[in-house]
Amino acid sequence: MNIPTYPEPRGLLKGKRVVVTAAAGTGIGFAVAKRAAEEGARVLISDFHERRLGEAADRIAAEVGCERPATVVCDVTSQADVDALCAAAMTHFGAVDVLINNAGLGGEVPVVEMSDEQWFRVLDVTLNSVFRMSRAFLPHMYAAKGGAVVNNASVLGWRAQKGQAHYAAAKAGVMAFTRCSAVEAAEHNVRINAVAPSIAMHAFLAKVTTDELLAKLSAQEAFGRPAEVWEVANVMLFLASDLSSYMTGEVIPVSSQRA
Protein backbone atom coordinates (compact mmCIF):
# COMPACT_ATOMS: atom_id res chain seq x y z
CA MET A 1 0.00 0.00 0.00
CA ASN A 2 1.59 3.25 -1.16
CA ILE A 3 0.85 6.00 1.39
CA PRO A 4 2.39 9.44 0.78
CA THR A 5 4.86 10.86 3.25
CA TYR A 6 3.40 12.95 6.06
CA PRO A 7 3.85 16.61 5.06
CA GLU A 8 6.41 18.99 6.49
CA PRO A 9 4.82 22.05 8.17
CA ARG A 10 4.94 25.27 6.13
CA GLY A 11 3.27 27.75 8.47
CA LEU A 12 0.06 27.90 6.41
CA LEU A 13 -2.05 28.95 9.42
CA LYS A 14 0.56 30.85 11.41
CA GLY A 15 -1.17 33.02 14.00
CA LYS A 16 -4.68 31.88 13.02
CA ARG A 17 -7.19 31.07 15.74
CA VAL A 18 -8.93 27.81 14.88
CA VAL A 19 -11.95 26.01 16.36
CA VAL A 20 -12.59 22.36 15.47
CA THR A 21 -15.66 20.31 16.42
CA ALA A 22 -15.69 16.55 17.02
CA ALA A 23 -11.93 16.51 17.53
CA ALA A 24 -11.59 13.74 20.12
CA GLY A 25 -10.48 10.26 19.09
CA THR A 26 -8.37 9.57 16.00
CA GLY A 27 -10.63 10.72 13.17
CA ILE A 28 -10.62 13.65 10.76
CA GLY A 29 -11.37 16.19 13.51
CA PHE A 30 -8.30 15.20 15.51
CA ALA A 31 -6.18 15.08 12.35
CA VAL A 32 -7.15 18.57 11.20
CA ALA A 33 -6.65 20.02 14.70
CA LYS A 34 -3.18 18.49 14.85
CA ARG A 35 -2.29 19.68 11.34
CA ALA A 36 -3.55 23.18 12.17
CA ALA A 37 -1.30 23.24 15.24
CA GLU A 38 1.62 22.04 13.13
CA GLU A 39 0.95 24.86 10.68
CA GLY A 40 1.25 27.48 13.42
CA ALA A 41 -2.37 27.94 14.49
CA ARG A 42 -3.67 28.35 17.99
CA VAL A 43 -6.30 25.67 18.37
CA LEU A 44 -9.45 25.10 20.42
CA ILE A 45 -11.02 21.67 20.13
CA SER A 46 -14.45 20.48 21.19
CA ASP A 47 -16.29 17.20 21.52
CA PHE A 48 -19.05 15.76 23.70
CA HIS A 49 -16.71 13.14 25.20
CA GLU A 50 -14.76 14.95 27.93
CA ARG A 51 -12.10 12.34 28.71
CA ARG A 52 -11.23 11.63 25.09
CA LEU A 53 -11.20 15.35 24.36
CA GLY A 54 -8.60 15.93 27.07
CA GLU A 55 -6.54 13.02 25.78
CA ALA A 56 -6.66 14.48 22.27
CA ALA A 57 -5.42 17.86 23.51
CA ASP A 58 -2.58 16.21 25.43
CA ARG A 59 -1.60 14.16 22.40
CA ILE A 60 -1.53 17.18 20.07
CA ALA A 61 0.63 19.13 22.50
CA ALA A 62 3.04 16.20 22.91
CA GLU A 63 3.28 15.23 19.24
CA VAL A 64 3.47 18.74 17.81
CA GLY A 65 5.43 20.35 20.62
CA CYS A 66 2.98 23.24 20.86
CA GLU A 67 0.87 24.78 23.60
CA ARG A 68 -1.93 22.47 24.66
CA PRO A 69 -5.09 23.22 22.67
CA ALA A 70 -7.94 24.70 24.66
CA THR A 71 -10.84 22.30 25.15
CA VAL A 72 -14.59 22.84 25.49
CA VAL A 73 -17.04 20.00 25.96
CA CYS A 74 -19.87 20.54 23.49
CA ASP A 75 -22.85 18.54 22.25
CA VAL A 76 -23.47 20.07 18.81
CA THR A 77 -27.13 19.05 18.95
CA SER A 78 -27.62 21.53 21.81
CA GLN A 79 -27.87 25.21 20.94
CA ALA A 80 -26.96 26.09 24.53
CA ASP A 81 -23.76 24.05 24.23
CA VAL A 82 -22.93 25.60 20.87
CA ASP A 83 -23.47 29.11 22.23
CA ALA A 84 -21.28 28.28 25.24
CA LEU A 85 -18.55 26.98 22.92
CA CYS A 86 -18.68 30.16 20.86
CA ALA A 87 -18.53 32.34 23.98
CA ALA A 88 -15.59 30.32 25.33
CA ALA A 89 -13.73 30.64 22.03
CA MET A 90 -14.24 34.40 21.95
CA THR A 91 -13.08 34.72 25.55
CA HIS A 92 -10.02 32.55 24.92
CA PHE A 93 -8.96 33.95 21.54
CA GLY A 94 -10.68 37.34 21.30
CA ALA A 95 -11.72 36.36 17.75
CA VAL A 96 -11.89 33.21 15.63
CA ASP A 97 -10.30 33.11 12.20
CA VAL A 98 -11.21 29.55 11.19
CA LEU A 99 -14.17 27.35 12.10
CA ILE A 100 -14.05 23.69 11.09
CA ASN A 101 -17.42 21.96 11.32
CA ASN A 102 -16.46 18.32 11.51
CA ALA A 103 -19.21 16.71 13.58
CA GLY A 104 -21.13 13.93 11.87
CA LEU A 105 -22.93 10.67 12.57
CA GLY A 106 -23.56 7.74 10.25
CA GLY A 107 -24.91 4.23 10.48
CA GLU A 108 -26.25 1.65 8.05
CA VAL A 109 -29.98 0.94 7.90
CA PRO A 110 -32.44 0.47 5.01
CA VAL A 111 -35.09 3.17 4.58
CA VAL A 112 -37.98 0.79 5.31
CA GLU A 113 -36.37 -0.22 8.61
CA MET A 114 -35.27 3.26 9.65
CA SER A 115 -36.93 4.77 12.71
CA ASP A 116 -37.76 8.44 13.12
CA GLU A 117 -35.14 8.60 15.87
CA GLN A 118 -32.42 7.20 13.58
CA TRP A 119 -33.32 9.60 10.78
CA PHE A 120 -33.55 12.73 12.94
CA ARG A 121 -30.48 11.89 15.04
CA VAL A 122 -28.22 11.61 11.99
CA LEU A 123 -29.60 14.83 10.49
CA ASP A 124 -29.28 16.64 13.82
CA VAL A 125 -25.65 15.73 14.40
CA THR A 126 -24.52 15.94 10.77
CA LEU A 127 -26.50 18.81 9.24
CA ASN A 128 -28.20 20.82 11.96
CA SER A 129 -24.91 21.15 13.85
CA VAL A 130 -23.37 22.96 10.88
CA PHE A 131 -26.28 25.40 10.94
CA ARG A 132 -26.05 25.94 14.71
CA MET A 133 -22.29 26.47 14.67
CA SER A 134 -22.43 28.79 11.68
CA ARG A 135 -25.24 30.83 13.19
CA ALA A 136 -23.22 31.26 16.39
CA PHE A 137 -19.81 32.05 14.90
CA LEU A 138 -20.54 33.94 11.68
CA PRO A 139 -21.69 37.19 13.33
CA HIS A 140 -18.26 37.46 14.99
CA MET A 141 -16.49 36.83 11.69
CA TYR A 142 -18.74 39.35 9.97
CA ALA A 143 -17.84 41.95 12.59
CA ALA A 144 -14.14 41.20 12.05
CA LYS A 145 -14.59 41.43 8.26
CA GLY A 146 -12.84 38.13 7.68
CA GLY A 147 -12.65 34.44 8.40
CA ALA A 148 -12.99 31.01 6.89
CA VAL A 149 -15.38 28.14 7.58
CA VAL A 150 -14.69 24.60 6.40
CA ASN A 151 -17.50 22.05 6.57
CA ASN A 152 -17.07 18.28 6.36
CA ALA A 153 -19.44 16.78 3.78
CA SER A 154 -19.11 13.44 1.95
CA VAL A 155 -19.14 12.05 -1.57
CA LEU A 156 -22.39 10.38 -0.48
CA GLY A 157 -23.95 13.82 -0.89
CA TRP A 158 -23.59 13.09 -4.62
CA ARG A 159 -23.44 9.31 -4.88
CA ALA A 160 -25.68 6.45 -3.78
CA GLN A 161 -24.95 3.71 -1.26
CA LYS A 162 -27.39 1.25 0.27
CA GLY A 163 -28.34 1.86 3.88
CA GLN A 164 -27.07 5.45 3.90
CA ALA A 165 -30.16 7.48 2.97
CA HIS A 166 -30.15 9.49 6.24
CA TYR A 167 -26.40 10.17 6.15
CA ALA A 168 -26.38 10.99 2.42
CA ALA A 169 -29.35 13.35 2.82
CA ALA A 170 -27.57 15.11 5.68
CA LYS A 171 -24.32 15.46 3.74
CA ALA A 172 -26.15 16.74 0.64
CA GLY A 173 -27.70 19.28 2.98
CA VAL A 174 -24.24 20.30 4.21
CA MET A 175 -23.21 20.90 0.61
CA ALA A 176 -26.27 23.04 -0.15
CA PHE A 177 -25.91 24.92 3.13
CA THR A 178 -22.25 25.60 2.31
CA ARG A 179 -23.09 27.09 -1.07
CA CYS A 180 -25.95 29.29 0.15
CA SER A 181 -24.27 30.53 3.33
CA ALA A 182 -21.11 31.29 1.34
CA VAL A 183 -22.97 33.73 -0.90
CA GLU A 184 -24.22 35.59 2.17
CA ALA A 185 -20.84 35.52 3.92
CA ALA A 186 -18.93 36.79 0.89
CA GLU A 187 -20.44 40.25 1.49
CA HIS A 188 -18.48 40.27 4.78
CA ASN A 189 -15.20 38.89 3.38
CA VAL A 190 -15.83 35.50 4.99
CA ARG A 191 -15.28 32.33 2.96
CA ILE A 192 -17.22 29.07 3.42
CA ASN A 193 -16.20 25.85 1.68
CA ALA A 194 -16.50 22.11 2.28
CA VAL A 195 -14.62 18.90 1.68
CA ALA A 196 -16.29 15.69 0.54
CA PRO A 197 -14.20 12.65 1.48
CA SER A 198 -15.00 9.21 0.10
CA ILE A 199 -13.44 6.96 2.75
CA ALA A 200 -10.89 7.90 5.42
CA MET A 201 -9.66 5.17 7.73
CA HIS A 202 -9.77 5.64 11.50
CA ALA A 203 -10.54 3.57 14.56
CA PHE A 204 -14.23 4.53 14.89
CA LEU A 205 -14.96 3.71 11.24
CA ALA A 206 -13.33 0.32 11.69
CA LYS A 207 -15.47 -0.25 14.78
CA VAL A 208 -18.83 0.49 13.14
CA THR A 209 -18.14 -0.92 9.65
CA THR A 210 -17.69 -4.55 8.63
CA ASP A 211 -14.38 -5.69 7.17
CA GLU A 212 -16.29 -6.81 4.07
CA LEU A 213 -17.75 -3.34 3.44
CA LEU A 214 -14.42 -1.62 4.13
CA ALA A 215 -12.73 -3.89 1.61
CA LYS A 216 -15.46 -3.20 -0.96
CA LEU A 217 -15.24 0.57 -0.49
CA SER A 218 -11.45 0.50 -0.64
CA ALA A 219 -11.57 -1.49 -3.88
CA GLN A 220 -13.65 1.30 -5.46
CA GLU A 221 -10.79 3.74 -4.93
CA ALA A 222 -8.26 4.16 -7.73
CA PHE A 223 -5.42 3.83 -5.21
CA GLY A 224 -6.99 0.70 -3.73
CA ARG A 225 -6.94 2.07 -0.20
CA PRO A 226 -8.80 4.47 2.07
CA ALA A 227 -7.45 7.97 2.62
CA GLU A 228 -5.39 8.61 5.70
CA VAL A 229 -7.21 11.10 7.94
CA TRP A 230 -4.37 13.59 7.55
CA GLU A 231 -4.84 13.51 3.77
CA VAL A 232 -8.36 14.85 4.27
CA ALA A 233 -7.06 17.31 6.85
CA ASN A 234 -4.57 18.70 4.33
CA VAL A 235 -7.38 19.75 1.99
CA MET A 236 -9.30 21.28 4.88
CA LEU A 237 -6.20 23.28 5.81
CA PHE A 238 -5.90 24.50 2.23
CA LEU A 239 -9.49 25.77 2.35
CA ALA A 240 -8.83 27.38 5.74
CA SER A 241 -5.65 29.10 4.58
CA ASP A 242 -5.00 32.13 2.42
CA LEU A 243 -3.95 29.81 -0.42
CA SER A 244 -7.67 29.43 -1.24
CA SER A 245 -8.45 33.15 -0.92
CA TYR A 246 -10.59 33.23 -4.10
CA MET A 247 -12.63 30.13 -3.28
CA THR A 248 -16.01 30.18 -1.58
CA GLY A 249 -19.13 28.05 -1.84
CA GLU A 250 -17.08 25.15 -3.19
CA VAL A 251 -17.28 21.47 -2.25
CA ILE A 252 -13.94 19.75 -2.88
CA PRO A 253 -13.88 15.95 -3.20
CA VAL A 254 -11.09 14.21 -1.28
CA SER A 255 -11.39 10.97 -3.16
CA SER A 256 -9.84 8.62 -5.66
CA GLN A 257 -13.17 6.88 -6.19
CA ARG A 258 -13.68 5.40 -9.62
CA ALA A 259 -16.42 6.99 -11.71
Shape, per Cα inertia axes:
globular
**Poorly predicted segments:** none
Supply the number of helical segments: 8
Note the beta-strand portion: 15-25%
Query: Mean pLDDT score, rounded?
Result: 93
Quickly give the structural class: alpha/beta
Q: What can be said about this structure in brief?
A:
With 259 residues, the chain is α/β, with parallel strands linked by helices.
Molecular structure report:
The structure is a single chain. The chain is an alpha/beta fold and 259 residues long. It has a single domain, classed as NAD(P)-binding Rossmann-like Domain (Rossmann fold, 3-Layer(aba) Sandwich), CATH 3.40.50. The protein is built from 8 helices and 9 strands. The strands form 2 sheets. Strands 3-2-1-4-5-6-9 form a 7-stranded parallel β-sheet, with helices on both faces. A two-stranded parallel sheet has the order 7-8. Strand 4, helix 4 and strand 5 form a beta-alpha-beta unit. Helix 1 runs parallel beside helix 2 and helix 1 packs across helix 8. The longest helix is centred in the middle third of the chain and has 29 residues.
